[in-house]
């Protein structure tokens, strides 16, 4: 391994060393994998950050799978940050700095934020694999099965369905592997992460919709060819965000002959498998606090006219905000010319923005 390290670029070496220390969703460190690294030899599996031995073994068995999983890691980071862009906690901590030894406590302490990240990660990896089967990027799988039920008149099954079954099977095998290692982490945290990962996959199952393509003379759509496909990951993330907001606080408690996660408030019904759970309360994320994993909201942009979580009052935690102006250059006065192009002018306008004090 030392000989391999000696020939690596400095940035990649840092990521590899970092991967030995991360204590949260380790495989998300794959989002930092250089685009120039193509996984086409078994020794490349040693160069991937954040993998435990069973994940590395899966890499060696199926090299092409890793390109899909790397894509999933990048998608998790992008989708998480976009989904929470309007809230105090904006998922910035999921993009761990290369010079840091571990994820910040908001993802390590068993909070509802870590619950969301685990759920989204599990959903994303299965989602990406299912779609890769459909697109032909994975030779190990192909289109999903044709539904057994007879479609309505004017509809017929066809096309290439997303292979959800394969995505769930391989995704769970890969993403749940770190939580099944006996020597690492507390049992309560492992149970929480396993539950939330399964909740993410349940959200994925609920995101299967019927997609159709029309056929007929002059676009009459007299016949529709349909297949089962998954909604975009951003839509699944929004569903999980709703579950994040209504997540249940649980405790690790002896129930009968073994300890289980049960709601902290005894009058709350048992938690369903598609709901998120957390063990530790979160900070308000108003002020910077490294021990709690809060980066604060100072200098965050806010919306003066909003009454939601992105409002200047809520985002700035009552500290007030500072205005500034920004010049925007936009396309305007567009005209369509026959046939077939559009010409536009460029217009400038000044907009007022606001950032938290």
TrEMBL record:
* Alphabetized UniProt keyword annotations: Developmental protein, Disulfide bond, Extracellular matrix, Glycoprotein, Lipoprotein, Secreted, Signal, Wnt signaling pathway
Which coarse location class describes where this protein primarily resides? secreted
Cited InterPro entries: Wnt, Wnt_C, Wnt_CS
One BP annotation, GO: animal organ development
Instruction: Specify the signal sequence span.
Output: 1-24
User: Taxonomically, which superkingdom?
Assistant: Eukaryota
Q: Where in the cell is it found?
A: Secreted, Extracellular space, Extracellular matrix
The UniProt family comment states: Belongs to the Wnt family.
Give the protein's function: Ligand for members of the frizzled family of seven transmembrane receptors.
Query: Can you say what this protein is called?
Result: Protein Wnt
Organism annotation? Umbra pygmaea
